[in-house]
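Record type: monomer structure entry
Structure origin: computed from sequence
Chain ID: A
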Amino acid sequence: MPKPGYFDYQRAMPTLWGKADYVTHLERGVVWVGTPSHGGLMVGKAVARKRLSPEAQEVGELCGSWLCYEEDCAYAVPLYENPQWALMCQFVVPPTVAQLEDVLKNWHPDYYERHTGRHVPDGESYIRRSNVLYTHTEGV
């Protein structure tokens, strides 16, 4: 049995990004995790089927019985559909809907378009601008 305050890394929750050094339970089947190098939101597949659109489920990366949404960009997908989760995550200031939309337009424009029905012009999406630039410079 570990000493009080001792973190037992051998028993830590496995995640897509390695073993978690902290886990925040937002609700049953929904956790925010951090590892020494990365982290994000993990949603159990059963919860995802009930609480996330098929488009949002496609964005998640499978890790065992969890769909994982990394902390830099993909996290915005499930939080956009379930904004109450943002209030429970370990953000200094929870993101607003407008901030989540900005992340989605930049990094997950296909999801944003399918989910909202609103078009994202290439010039308003970092990932699309990058893909256009790469396509035009390929082989140069």
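Annotation 1: Residues 9-137 form one domain.
Annotation 2: The helical segments are 45-51, 54-59, 76-81, 83-88, 97-107, 109-116, 126-137.
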